[in-house]
Every structure is written in C-alpha cells, then in structure tokens.
Amino acid sequence: MKPLDPRLLRHSAAARGYLAVTVALGLTATGLILLQASLLAHVLAAAATGTGVTVLAGALGMLAAVLAARAAAAYGGEVSALRAAAAVKSQLRRRLADHALKLGPSWLARHRSGEVTTLATRGLDGLDAYFARYLPQLVLACLVPFAVLIRVGVADWISGVVIGLTLPLMPVLAILVGRHTKGTMQRQWRLLAGLGGHFLDVVEGLPTLKLFGRGKPQAEVIGTVTDEYRGAAMSSLRIAFLSGFVLELTAAAATALVAVEVGLRLLAGHVSYQTALLVLLLTPEAFLPLRAVGAQFHASAEGAAAARDVFEILDTPEPAVVAASARSRPQTWAAGRRVSLRRDTIRLSGVTLAYPGRDQQALSGVNMTIRPGDRITLTGPSGAGKSSLLALLLRFAYPTGGRIEIGGMDLMSIPLDEWRSQISWVPQHPHLFTATVADNIALGRPDTGHTAIARAAQAAGAAEFIENLPQGYATAVGEHGLRLSSGQRQQIALARAFLRDTPLLLMDEPTAHLDAASAGRLDTAISTLMADRTVIQVTHAQSRAHHTGQVFLLDQGRLRQAIVPLPASAAFAPVAVAS
User: Fold this and answer.
1) For the chain, how long is the longest CA-to-CA vector?
2) CA separation for the pair 352, 339 (Å, rounded)
3) What distance in Å separates the CA atoms of residue 96 and residue 102, rounded to the nearest whole number?
4) How crowded is residue 545: how many other Cβ atoms within 10 Å of its Cβ?
5) What span, in angstroms and rounded, lies between the C-alpha atoms of 68 and 367?
6) How far apart are CA 216 and CA 35, in angstroms?
7) Which segments of 354-452 are extended strands (E)?
8) Domains of the chain by range and CATH?
9) What is the C-alpha separation between 123 and 140, in angstroms, rounded?
10) What does DSSP assign to residue 119?
11) What percentage of the chain has pLDDT greater than the value 90?
C-alpha cells in the first residue's frame, strides 16, 4: 500500500475543497504546536524563578487560547476530512454503479454480485479511516517534524542534530512494516469480499438448498471462510500492535536520548532552563505524528484495499470501447439522425462473439437480415448461442468480429439510450423489485397511469391473478418477487414489455414457466399486440417453434438451418440467412 494513493485523489474531485481545508487546518495546527511549546516553556521557566501568577496572567491566557485554537483546528480538520470521505465514497459508488452498467451483464455474470455489493458498501466505508484520520496524520507527519526540527535547531543546535539523526528511523521502520502489512490486509479484504459474495448466494438459494438437503454443508463452508477471515483479521491486528510497539519504542528511545543530553548540559550550565524545557516539550511532538500515522495506516488499509479493487473495475474497458478499437474504420454517429426500428432493417454480417476466458466462440459467422414486422424464433440446444444473439441486439455484448448495421449505420455508433428505448426485453428469469405489482409493470414507463398498466397486465394474461391478490395492483411482491410463482413473475415481466410499446420485442423463453393453456393464450396475445412490430423469441421447444413466423436453428454458434414455417403463419416478410 502506498503512503498516498494518487488514484484516490484523482477520483475525489468533489472532495478537493474539503481536503484543502484539512491541509490548511493541519498547517494551522503545526504553528499552534510550536507556539504552545514556546509559551509553556516561558511560563514554567518564569514560575521556576519565582515570577507571580499576576505577571504571567497574559502568557497563561494566551496559552489557554492556543490550546482552544488547537482543539478547534483538530476538530475542524476531522470534520472536513469526514466530509471529504463521504464525498469520495459517494462519487466512487456512483462511478462504480455506472461503469458496472456499461460493462453489462456479460461482465456481471463473471463476478459474484455479493462481492461487488460488499465492495460498494462495507469496502468503501473503510475510506472513512483513510480520509478522516490517516490522511490528516500523513499531512501532519510531513509538516510537524520538520517545523519542530527547525524550531529546536534554532534554540539548541545540538538537540536539533540528535533529533535529525533519529527522526528518519521512524519512516524507515513504518515502510518495512507496511510492506509486510500489504499482503495481510489484501488477504483479509479478499476473504471478506468472498464471504459476503458466498453468503449472499447461499441466502438467495436457501429454499433450493433446503429442498436438496444441502443447507448444512453450505453452513460449514461459511463457517470455514469465517474462520479464515477471523484468522486474517487477528493476524492484521497482531502486526498493527507489534508495529505500534516498535514505533513507540523507537520514539521513546529517541526522546530519552535527547532528554539525557539536554539534562547533562543543563547541569553543566551550557543551556538555559527555558531552552531545555522548550526542547523537551517539542521533542515528543516531532515523533508523535509519525507514530500516529503508523497506527492509522493499519486502520485505513482495508478501505484502501477496497478502493484498489474499485479502481480495477473502473479501469476495465467497456465492451463497446474494446469492440470499436478493434475496427479499422469506426463509423461516427451523424448528429440529428435518428434510427427507427419501425422502418430500418437490422443486418448481421459475419458476426462473431467470443467471451473472455472461453476457448469456444459463442457465435461464429452469423449472417442475418431482420426486417420491420418480422416474427422470428431462434431454437437450438443449450449453449448454442441463442441468448448471445439477443445480448448482441441488446448491446449487453459486442461482436468480436463482423458487423451489425441498422439502417446502414454501425450499431455501435448509435447512442445506447436511443437504441434501447426502442427495445423491450423479457429475460428467461426476470427480476422483480421489492415494490408493488403496478410499480414493477411500470418500470420502463414510471409515469404511466393505472389504466395503461391494467391493460398491459390483461394482455399478458396477468390481470386475473393480480386482481385476486390482497391489495390488487398495490400488493408488494417481496424481494425478487418471491411472493409470486415463477409463471406469475414471467407474466408481470411480459406486461412490463407490452407497456413499453416498442417496435422490437426480444423474449428469452417467455413461456418456459407457463402451462400449456397459459402459453397458448400468451402466444395469441403476442400475435395480436405485436402484429406491426418485430418479435424475436428464443425457445428450446422446436415443436412450438413451428407455430411462429420464421424459425432458425442455432447449433454451436452457427445458423445452420432455416426451418420453413407453415403457410398459415407465413404472413411476415422473409428473413435472409446465410451460413
């Protein structure tokens, strides 16, 4: 861990004002320390010669004012540093969430959501210690020792030389301890992040684990990881206590050395009593910031380790940027031009998709033309690339080869928000939020009235069960919609898609959780509502696929076969396919 991570300062634009105030108050505190020592030495020396309290009243009053000002500067510095920490945490969390959304589901699928959640919450909370205590102490550690050394050197050059020779031992020891601490703190943070991710996965899958009798083994796994984390935390504390002891011992030995040489020269009459007092008062102040920064280093190490993980995520290039850099002639978006999926054709030309860390390509050489109003079904075995093709159209992933065009424009050159505003998506496992049924249906159009929400639910075949709920559309569905069956969750997701009323509807196994009668009603609803729109549907059941418009088979990432639909359902424009 570096003494000062420049990336934290680069990502803390909102906190620079607070940091400037913290540094200014640190400079003020440094001057007050020197003034306090001088006044206290003067008062004690004068009192030793018999000077009365009345004569020293002015100096005592000034000393009290200096002590109060020093306390106020310390308080103000910590408050300002805490506000800086809050600003940095807020900024990093916003950037982390925004960048994770840009990286898309393909990146999120490779990272446990619990670890990312722990990183954004408990991990970044550790920056409080970094900004509120470690950073101010680091500033004081850079200012106070030099100021004290200069002041002592002016008053007694011999003591200044002794302090100057012993002072460098503190940062050297701190660096040696810090190198050993780095690996321990990183291991502690990794274990905490892993524990958080695994625990969240276990809690979410608890019903399934109990059903298959696997709850106890998972509890043992959590216990094992907890023990490892406890061991790492205790190891970090042991290092912190030992390093604190080493720094305290070094500071005490250096202070004692100065005290001995000053005492001997005072007895010999080579130094005045006031000067000796000044040196003895300032010597501990020279070592105190270095001791404090060593202690706060360990307290802030976890937050700094979490911040490094955040920076690794922020430094991960977006798939769109990687894909664009791989193109020799990227096409720029023409200002003022708008793409409409109601009139423009989508063309996939030699599209290839390969996920990082996988040897086999998800899609290979896919050529396809999708015209407005087409009804398309993609079928094939699991892992054939059906969901990957939808991910490309949703821009959750980007082609590693080939080209996707819409209206003659490269898909990647179209603004993301404009593109997705024309698409509705029904995933295989839709996510419902802890809100009411109406709020979940209106997710894509939060300003929609109740009448439109009810009409969309009716179209998706969800109105009947919703009206039978305790509070109807105002019923809270619970976390992840666990109060509803899987089929009911799917119907709400379909109602959400119908409400958006977009020209392109993408569906990944929309009837997988429905019975035959409900699936038939849903097919009728899709045919009725989407007659003038483009529908692309993924299914494993080839028997059901023959009842749709154009049907295509994906096998090992390739479009190998076009299945000609029945004449009754061939009322859509043909789709050109080449392998």
Assistant:
1) 117
2) 24
3) 10
4) 22
5) 77
6) 65
7) 363-370, 375-379, 401-406, 409-410, 423-426
8) 6-316 (1.20.1560.10), 374-395+415-568 (3.40.50.300)
9) 26
10) I
11) 1
The pLDDT of residue 578: 39
Question: How far is C-alpha 239 from the chain's CA centre?
Answer: 29
Angle at 321 between CA 12 and CA 556, to 5 degrees: 130
The 8-class DSSP code of residue 472 comes to: G
Tokens 């210690």 belong to 129
**Interatomic CA distance for residues 237 and 176, integer angstroms:** 16
pLDDT value of position 319: 65
Q: Which of 251, 327, 238 is nearest to 287 (CA)?
A: 251
Strand partners, 348: 368, 404
* Residues present in the chain in total: 579
> Among residues of the chain, what percentage have pLDDT more than 70?
79
Q: What pTM was computed for the model?
A: 0.64
- Rounded to whole angstroms, the Cα distance separating 84 from 17 reads 8
Measured at the alpha carbon of residue 536, what is the angle toward residues 534 and 542, in degrees to the nearest 5? 135
Residues 101, 108: Cα–Cα separation, whole Å: 9
The overall average pLDDT reported for the chain is 78
What span, in angstroms and rounded, lies between the C-alpha atoms of 276 and 269?
11
Contact 141, 292 (CB under 8 A): yes
Q: Which residue in this structure is represented by tokens 């079904």?
A: 377
Three-class secondary structure of residue 458 per DSSP: helix
* Per-residue model confidence as pLDDT tens digits over 333-361: 455 567 888 888 899 888 888 877 777 88
For residue 562, give the H/E element and its range: strand 558-563
> Which is more confidently placed, 176 or 475?
475
**475 in Cβ contact with 437 (< 8 Å):** yes
DSSP one-letter code for 432: -
What average pLDDT score do residues 292-321 get? 75
- In this structure, what are the phi and psi dihedrals at residue 363, rounded to the nearest 5 degrees? -135, 145
- 155 CB-near residues (< 8 Å, 6+ apart): 275, 278, 279
Q: Report the SS3 class of residue 386.
A: helix
Residue 344: DSSP 8-state: P
Residues 38 and 59: their CA atoms lie apart, in Å, by: 10
